[in-house]
Design brief:
Largest sheet: 8 strands, parallel, barrel
Structural class: alpha/beta
Number of strands: 10
Distance between the termini: 19 Å
Order of helices and strands: EHEEEHEHHEHEHHEHEE
Shape: globular
CATH class: Alpha Beta
Radius of gyration: 18 Å
Number of helices: 8
Bound molecules: zinc ion
CATH topology: TIM Barrel
Length: 272
């Protein structure tokens, strides 16, 4: 079992200092986003550069035998949200704070994201990629026991059971593009039928589209017990799942049942 931590690069981040932290935490690597806020963590003509070059970080990590997974946020983006308001998902959820959902079916948007991330992968050369926010909008971080599912009401967005098919075909296309890499998809932590109809993330279909399912099982954030994590994992095929659990949970000290998974993705390095 490999221990990987999600990592959100700060401006002015020193690669060598980050590597030192990863080693001190006895981790096998990190999963890090290609984009931070309105800036890209690689050089591209399509977006401003953050100053944090993940290609250089990756080379240094290779020397230390550490893994770098690249997280590709499809339909959440501050830069597009600010500059192209017509591409926003029309969602009215007062609990959403940082979430900047985009409309998955806005014409050409998916291809545009894919082409941006192709550039990122070519430049950074990651060990695996994680398809993130590849779903119709749902601010699941804000869901309480009432589980009131608020999604978008865009003109174009289907609400009649077509969402899983659309998301699965996008996931397939992304897998085709990154065929030489292991492709994971980050899943919202609820996999009931009602949630699947909203997000379009159907694990049963997605497992045939990509290599790995990585459900974000942040039970503390969701104010649930640790057994919530195991109850979701019970529903999924273990050999194709990288559970994502909180760094602060007892799983970090004692992985227990999670030991059978190839990787655990901890959320996140700064919470150590
Ligand atoms: Zn929509």
């Amino acid at each position: 079992m490999k221990a990987i931590a999600k990592c959100y690069p700060q401006e002015g981040m020193e690669p060598s200092a980050l590597i030192k932290r990863i080693k001190e935490a006895e981790l096998d690597g990190i999963a890090i986003s290609a984009i931070s806020g309105t800036k890209a963590n690689f050089q591209t003509a399509k977006m401003p550069f953050s100053g944090c070059n993940l290609g250089i970080l990756k080379e240094l990590m290779n020397e230390e035998n550490l893994e770098l997974g690249l997280i590709l946020p499809f339909f959440h983006d501050d830069f597009i949200w600010q500059n192209y308001p017509e591409e926003r998902a029309d969602i009215n959820d007062p609990s959403q704070t940082w979430y900047r959902p985009l409309c998955p079916v806005f014409p050409g948007l998916f291809r545009e994201r894919l082409s941006l991330f192709k550039e990122a992968v070519a430049e950074i050369n990651p060990d695996f990629v994680g398809l993130d926010f590849l779903r119709f909008p749902l601010f699941w971080e804000g869901l309480d026991e009432k589980m009131e599912l608020r999604s978008c009401s865009c003109k174009e967005c289907p609400a009649d059971g077509k969402r899983p098919e659309i998301i699965a075909s996008m996931a397939k296309e992304a897998k085709k593009e990154f065929d030489s890499l292991k492709v994971a998809i980050h899943l919202v932590p609820f996999i009931g039928r009602d949630v699947i109809e909203v997000t379009g993330q159907d694990p049963e279909i997605l497992i045939d589209a990509v290599d790995i399912l990585s459900p974000m099982l942040y039970h503390r954030l969701l104010k649930r017990e640790e057994r919530f994590v195991l109850s979701v994992l019970d529903e999924l095929p273990p050999f194709r799942v990288w559970p994502s659990v909180e760094m602060s949970s007892s799983f970090r000290e004692n992985p227990g049942l999670l030991k059978n998974h190839e990787k655990i993705i901890y959320f996140h390095l700064d919470l150590l």
